[in-house]
Amino acid sequence: MKKGSIIRYFPGNNTPEGYYSFFDYILPWKQAQRIIIIKGGPGVGKSTMIRKITKELVERGLDIELLHCTADSNSLDGLIVKDYNIALLDGTAPHMIDPKFPGCVDEIVNFGEYWNEAGLKKQKDHIFRLQARVKHLYKRVYNYLKASKIIFNNLEQTYGSLVNRRLVEAKADEIICSVFDGVERRDKVSFQRRMFASGITPEGSINFLDELFSNVGKRYILTGNPGTGKSFILKKIVDHAASKGLDMDVFYCPMNTEKIEHIIIKELDIGFVTSIKPHILSKTKENDEFLDMNSFLEISKLGHVEEEINQDYSLAWSLFDKAVETLVEVKKTRDDLEGIYSSNMNFEVTSKVAEKLLDKILSYI
Questions:
Q1: pLDDT for 45-57, tens place per residue?
Q2: What are the two backbone dihedrals, phi and then psi, of residue 120, each rounded to the nearest 5 degrees?
């Protein structure tokens, strides 16, 4: 039997506004066959269980979407068996998920039933201190990101004032004409799944662009400085695709959760990738079409603002790096918490729970 495939992305992210989740836009409850929500503290084995179940499902030829965690990019927040609209999700902080249609769509599996409560009570004060430390550090992370975003806004304004908007709009219209030529309107409402292709994590900015776009036939690669019109073009493409009733995977920017960075229109086998620092598409194809948005800048005027641009870039990335450094401290503290909980877990029982969950998922398939 041919093995199933795996794609990866982040369902939520660390942003200047705090932790931001797209869980509800990835697999809407009313479209789901089954959503299994796992509850329990850090280090109780949720990610390990998701990884094991994924391996079993892929071996059976099922295509899986893995939802990665921005608290630790190697950790998993869930899986989706896409063709069957089945999800297994970590429903604990910071991505709190609760049942919306208990029994008929979703259910809870509580790993708290399998820990040593007496052992955890002995560590109560230590757990309180560690959780308070995590909360404090996350506030610092989000403030650094917020400050970084303000400086990036300066860069967008500076470059934006030097862009020939008429040429950008003409280019957007040219791409739309090329992409949607002969595409008839579907008799349905466009469904747009929202997610993040890159995450701000303790490991830095991690992205899954190469994997997500590896099987997309035709790809448009957008490059260029902030404010040069990349998101403007992508927004026009999403709006036009929606008017045609086309379904899309739309990937947003962690530094601005309203800004579109990448698009996949599977029905047309077309993708759009914003390939700039810190998320660069490293694997290109012969038929990729590149669009350098800096070509729409009035280069003659750049010299007058070069010094302030360099200062803003340096400051913005310095603040971003400070946020990542603080996330490293968050992870160290969370690792200490996980150590407490894992030392008080009955993993023999949770392994049997994982087997039952695998059987349950397979029964829905």
A1: 889 999 999 999 9
A2: -70, -35
